[in-house]
Design brief:
A five-stranded parallel β-sheet has the order 2-1-4-3-5. Helix 1 links the parallel strand 1 and strand 2. The two termini are 25 Å apart. The mean pLDDT is 91. The chain is globular, with a radius of gyration of 14 Å. It has 144 residues and is an alpha/beta fold.
Length: 144
C-alpha cells in the first residue's frame, strides 16, 4: 500500500513534528507512507495537479464525513483495494484553504471533523486515523 500526505505550510512546532514522526514510524512497518510539505503555493499546485485525479483526496470540512473510526477504516481499505498498486494521496490545504477553487470539483473530499483544524493538526489527526485503521484491520486492542 502506498500512501502520501501532501500539505502546504510553514514548519510545524516540535510537538507536532514529533507526533507526525511517531505515527509515520508506526505506519512504515505496514505500508509505504511518505510526506511532502510544500512551502510555496506554486510548488503545492504543481505537485497535486500532476497526480492522477482518482488518487487525490482533499481534506476539507465539507467533504465526506465518517460516523466512526471503523467507518473511516472501511473506506480507507476500500480505496486501497480500488487503487491497486497506485498511490493514495491525501492533500491538506493551508491556512487559506486550497489555492485552486476548481479542485473541489475535480477531486474527492473527505472530512476528519466538522471542526476546522489547522493544517498541522490535520496531519496528526489523519496519521492517527490511518494508524487506527491498520489496527482495526489487524484486530488489535488499540481501537477500543
Amino acid at each position: 500500500m502506498k500512501v502520501r500526505l501532501i500539505s502546504i505550510g510553514k514548519s510545524s512546532p516540535k510537538w507536532i513534528e514529533d507526533a507526525v514522526e511517531e505515527y509515520l514510524t508506526r505506519l512504515r512497518s505496514h505500508m509505504n507512507i511518505t510526506t511532502l510539505w510544500a512551502k510555496k503555493e506554486q510548488q503545492f499546485l504543481e505537485i497535486v495537479e500532476k497526480e492522477d485525479p482518482s488518487s487525490i483526496f482533499l481534506l476539507d470540512e465539507r467533504g465526506k464525513t465518517f460516523k466512526s473510526s471503523k467507518e473511516f477504516s472501511d473506506w480507507f481499505f476500500s480505496r486501497h483495494d480500488a487503487a491497486r498498486h497506485k498511490e493514495i494521496n491525501f492533500v491538506i490545504g493551508g491556512a487559506e484553504g486550497f489555492p485552486n477553487p476548481a479542485w473541489k470539483n475535480r477531486y474527492q473530499s473527505i472530512s476528519l471533523s466538522n471542526l476546522t483544524l489547522t493544517h498541522q493538526m490535520a496531519r496528526v489527526v489523519l496519521l492517527e486515523q490511518i494508524y487506527r485503521s491498520m489496527e482495526i484491520e489487524k484486530g488489535t486492542k488499540y481501537h477500543k
